[in-house]
Amino acid sequence: MNNWDLMENGALAIKHGKITFVGKESSATNIVADLKIDAGGKVATPGLINCHTHVPMTLFRGIAEDQPLDRWLKESIWPLEAKLKPTDVYAGALLGCLEMIKSGTTCFADTYFQEGMVARAVQESGLRAVLAEGILEAENCLIGQKTFRSSVHFVQEFNGFADGRVSVMLGPHAAYTCGLKLLKKVRGKASELNVGIHIHLAESKAMLKDFEKQHGSSEVEFLDRIGFLKDDVVAAHCVDLSDKDMRILAGRGVSVVHAPVSNMKLGLDVARINDLLRLGVNVGLGTDGPASNNTLDMFETMKFASLLQKVICHDPSVLPAYEVLKMTTINGAKALGIENQVGSLEVGKKADIILVDLSKPHLKPLHDLCASLVYSARGSDVDTVIVDGKILMQDRQVKTLDEETVVEMAEKAAADLLVR
Amino acid sequence: MNNWDLMENGALAIKHGKITFVGKESSATNIVADLKIDAGGKVATPGLINCHTHVPMTLFRGIAEDQPLDRWLKESIWPLEAKLKPTDVYAGALLGCLEMIKSGTTCFADTYFQEGMVARAVQESGLRAVLAEGILEAENCLIGQKTFRSSVHFVQEFNGFADGRVSVMLGPHAAYTCGLKLLKKVRGKASELNVGIHIHLAESKAMLKDFEKQHGSSEVEFLDRIGFLKDDVVAAHCVDLSDKDMRILAGRGVSVVHAPVSNMKLGLDVARINDLLRLGVNVGLGTDGPASNNTLDMFETMKFASLLQKVICHDPSVLPAYEVLKMTTINGAKALGIENQVGSLEVGKKADIILVDLSKPHLKPLHDLCASLVYSARGSDVDTVIVDGKILMQDRQVKTLDEETVVEMAEKAAADLLVR
Questions:
Q1: Using CB atoms within 10 A of its CB, is residue B320 exposed (0-12), middle (13-18) or buried (19+)?
Q2: Helix (H) or strand (E) holding A414
Q3: Integer-rounded Cα radius of gyration of chain A
Q4: H helices present in B291-402, as ranges
Q5: What is the tally of structural domains in chain B?
Q6: Which end of chain A is more exposed for a tag (fewer CB within 10 A), N or C?
Q7: Do A227 and A361 share a structural domain?
Q8: Is residue A89 part of a domain?
């Protein structure tokens, strides 16, 4: 089932959280199951993987809209983040998990502060996640040291958390917010602990110019010079890469996460995804934080990703639907280093599966399944979500979380935060 | 309620299809109503207006994906269109109407062939529409004459059809597919019959270059020279306008319809909507035909429109949410010449109203209603649709059409067409 091979009248079997059968329904008649799900009129696909977000930022959704990036950050987001309590992070993360389940995301990569609270939301929701506690220096060595220690501590404490559904990375914010020494320490520690690194890279032209003035090279060249870039690095955004930068990323096996909706909404640049793919770079997709998106809907992100490359390249054939589906499933899993566990429907892999209801008018007639999923489907067309073989949602009823409670908790946290 | 003034705890009253009260619920206690709809947890907005589409093309959704425009048209779309029967057009249009009701569109502007079948779908669905039978010459005078007569005949036959919910325009396809004489005839006839003109304009750079080679000026300059451009002209796309073109459109009061999703998907150019707005041009939004979109969801189109301008202008403050909402409601109504009837919630206007359910996780917390509607909401969040005071959908149950029958009819038409 790799490469978006499609199968009609297929069946899947799951045992102890893993896929034990993939094939024609007619060949599955001898399988005895405790529970059967009729997927008639639906399609089973690997659960979608959101490779870059900051889920607790659901709390800031709709705050300070349509503002320039620096004003948005300095006047609205950062002052609010400074006031965040662990319970707020938990409430925001739980709302994000609920939204992701309801839109077919089964695994997400997150970096934020107090990431332990995100891990707890993951545990409760039943989702899978690759989490990293943020490391940020901002020219203050002490803060750099402190956040580094927290990030390492998080790795040690939460690797394998929630029955193994949580895996971990180190989370240096960016080359422009972490100094040379700190970045080297992060690199060394990641190799020592055998975990990946989740970092923002080449996020905006303005920042890039400042960086070049200070360091005499681009962020990518700088990071490469200090030996930072390896195939365990997940680099989010990459909107302003030179040809040389792109060749370096390809050569080092770095995975890029494209976040088209957030990049567009913040008025930044367009990542040259088509060029990166041609160079053989592995690319996943992400929503970025919901405050700059404003959703966590990977169906929406798939459509934006494809259409943005088509218009930028003036070529409707670039980033075709099946390519985008791969980016959101198996290639996302590769980016996060878990492609041996999830990202495709194969025997032996963990059962992270979604069923999309194809009966809706906007999905009819069905001439091309991949195109339907990328260009027509919405998160709300997801009917059933299974992670680790456990049903998190069926008939759009979420089983692991009480929707009303989660929403109320987040609303209360956001309201308190604004008057704190 | 113009300019997206917001009201909390508001109430609306409707009588004989028109809005008779807009105000605080507390001031509405003495209104006696046969039927009350509780809109708690929901927001009432004017129904969305799709200013440019070809609804029967639902039948081609997903056919020939990710292909260059000329190949897509010549090898796939045109051969299929040549085989379309009136019943196919009806089936496709009815599916489109169903999809529009389910995503909060209450009025659409359509140009196609056998447009009478679209009018019948509008009648049955309960929607409002501004329809035009397409006029196309393509260097064959006889076809030009024939389609011109059909378009005029359609205007005469269908103006005020479906209890007045159908209004009409003439539908010359484009300056590059209709000759000088024909365009002059269209202009004269539109003025004589006092109806608008719905035309494709400046759709792609390649076509524009061919046109300039042949006529020595841009499409806009050419049309202006022959006196074609007046304030009753609705010009779809306008992706390749010079500064001079834009000043001409502003000076003549032409309305522009922006169709960002289709323009992006076909790998065309980006319309300079922000510049057009600055010049005072009235801009509405459209999905274009569902074969190049692939939905009729105006919520999606609103988000694409805003984010595309932000990234192209490198400025997150352009096309803010409230501006996009105006484009999709009152400015869309202006473009179609029906702003005295619909497009806002005002006493005396026709009751075209939607209720959007704000209880969904991806709309929480609610800090900014306009941002929620444009950046977070999806068509599937629309709970209730009212047109002309009649409930077309309530609790997502469509009242005027049987969903299953409509879908089956369209599926059958599409399947038959492919083997015909």
A1: middle
A2: helix A403-419
A3: 21
A4: 298-313, 321-328, 330-335, 369-371
A5: 1
A6: C
A7: no
A8: yes
Residue A164 within a domain = yes
Q: Do B320 and A66 touch (CB under 8 A)?
A: yes
Give the pLDDT band (50/70/90) at residue A99: very high
CB < 8 Å to B91, chain A: none
Residue A328 domain boundaries: 48-335
User: A99 and A35, same structural domain?
Assistant: no
Domain membership of residue A420 (yes or no) is no
Torsion sign, CA atoms A217, A218, A224, A228: positive
Count residue pairs from A and B with Cβ separation < 8 A.
210
**Residue B199, domain CATH:** 3.20.20.140
**Nearest residue on chain A to B320, alpha-carbon basis:** A66
Residue A311 in any domain: the answer is yes
Q: Domain check: are A301 and A370 in the same one?
A: no
Chain A's closest residue to B403, CA to CA, is A361
* A41 and A57 in a common domain: no
ipTM of predicted assembly, 2 dp: 0.97
For residue B316, give the nearest of A265, A306, A321 by CB distance. Answer: A265
Q: Do B371 and A269 touch (CB under 8 A)?
A: no
* Interface contact flag, B65 A379, Cβ < 8 Å: no
Same domain membership, residue A134 and residue A213: yes
CATH code of the domain covering residue A21: 2.30.40.10
Long-range pairs, B406-411, Cβ under 8 A, ≥24: B406/A361, B406/B94, B406/B95, B406/B98, B407/A359, B407/A361, B407/A364, B407/B95, B407/B98, B409/B91, B409/B94, B409/B95, B410/A364, B410/A365, B410/B58, B410/B59, B410/B91, B410/B92, B410/B94, B410/B95, B411/A364, B411/A365
- Indicate if the pLDDT at residue A1 is higher than 60: no
A69-78, A218-227, A254-263, B220-229: lowest mean pLDDT where? A69-78
